[in-house]
Protein 1
Amino acid sequence: AFRIIKEVQKRYKTREAEEKEKEGIVKQDSLVINLNRSNPKLKDLYIRPNIAQKRMQGSLEAHVNGFRFTSVRGDKVDILYNNIKHAVFQPCDGEMIIVLHFHLKNAIMFGKKRHTDVQFYTEVGEITTDLGKHQHMHDRDDLYAEQMEREMRHKLKTAFKNFIEKVEALTKEELEFEIPFRE
């Protein structure tokens, strides 16, 4: 009997917490989906904060009035252009990830939590390096890997830049991406 009471209390508390999270949420318009296949799209991205416990890959697609992130599992997160306060594009210059960051005017719900900041990113190259390698034996491999990483960075940078330019053209400059500069 004690365990049943505790379970009911726990369920009640989680339901109450979820309702409290939903309280401040502003109801958004629904996303107008552009059916033609020429939508600007970025593939193999991760979303932060995560939708589920594990991070999942997905694609970010620009539609008529907003973005839709669709994970490989089928989870969807919609962000409308009129809800974006700041859009920041952080290129991978000296970084291991390339990021699109959206700061929202009104929080959106996903993963049972409210979020006002959403990031879409992809990793460039290896974040971890194997320190146990024999230094002199793999010099050629390392040079090749560095060359591949440089090409990958360039490819990702141009893909993200093209995406941003297409989105800015699609929204008629209503949504502008800012790029942080380093000193």
Note: The chain has a mean pLDDT of 82.
Protein 2
Amino acid sequence: MSLLTKITVYLSLLMLVIGGGLALYAIVYGP
């Protein structure tokens, strides 16, 4: 696997984790 592919996969997973974390935070601490 090329370095660019690894970086792309890593960034997409990171965004997924951050998005999920923000959604969970909004559900727990939201209105």
Note: Residues 11 and 17 are 10 Å apart (CA to CA).
Protein 3
Amino acid sequence: MAVRELDRILNARTTRDGAGVTVHRVFGVGTENLTDPFLLLDEVNSCIPEEYSAGFPLHPHRGIDIVTYMLSGFLRQVDSLGKACMIGPGCLQWLTAGSGVIHEEMPLESAVLRGFQIWINLPRAGKMVDPLCREAAPEEIPVVPILGGKVRVLAGRFGGASGPVIGVQGKPGLLDVELDPGAVFLTDLPPERTGIVHIFEGGPAEIGSVRTEELPESSAFLLGTGDSARLRAGPRGARFLLLSGTPLREPIAWKGPVVMNEMSEVDLAYKEYGTGTFVKAL
């Protein structure tokens, strides 16, 4: 078993999105060829309502999967599919935008609003599928106990358990891993798949043989070649996301919330949005 070492640091930055929500952009535009098929990873973590209360008013998406995973607080989502739902602590929403969906995401004021949003690129052949929104409550997300920790299987497979959302294009893997101090996490990660680690709680840890105390906090770490991933928690334990997926290796044309293969397709999407013909399926 060849353990993957740290290959590259994806430096995070703080920015504003939506109507002025403060987000921690772990990676996004400019790294898409490195993180393929993953496009973006945002984290919101705030106890100040002014940093998030304006939310994300109505906006379109096309050509991607949008995964929202909440740790604390509530996010109300309404979309052009006629779906209205509340995404609360421990909940997962998987929105396949496909041919086009319009939605809004509005946070409710809470002691702490914390969660992640991940954009996953859809292949050329699947970009114009009918949109579909699926949710999983906390009790529907498998929790696999491991020595010195536990793993929530958000997507893909781990320890004999499968994520709660079925029929996902590309079969990405998303794991939320919690480790006690000094505990080690080891898992197979086929060499043909992209591997990304984002440590969001805990102190120093090891990725392969590299200690993260020497690395920027809250950034993402791209794993190199090999067929397994190994992480060791530091004295304060660790909690991290492990993303894995097979690269599409297709052209990426990206503008705002629309991701296609050619800029002409992106331009058409915005033209349709302006003329009220964006949504293809209800």
Note: The first helix runs from residue 32 to 35.
Protein 4
Amino acid sequence: MRIGALPTAALGILPTVIGQFHKQQKDITLQVATMNNTMLLAGLKSGEIDIGIGRMSDPELMSGLHLRTVVP
């Protein structure tokens, strides 16, 4: 699974979340790349990444993506 994340998330909460995920799903490999919001959106739309973790504020740019708010 390929994850794109803002640098603050990649260095902040993401290592803990990945550690917890790996304990439950040992057979799934996670790859993390740090990206800015523009790169996250492009990566999600192109299929380069499966999950994007960032601040998305423009609904028009996010059209066609499945979104879930984890932390409001």
Note: The first helix runs from residue 7 to 11.
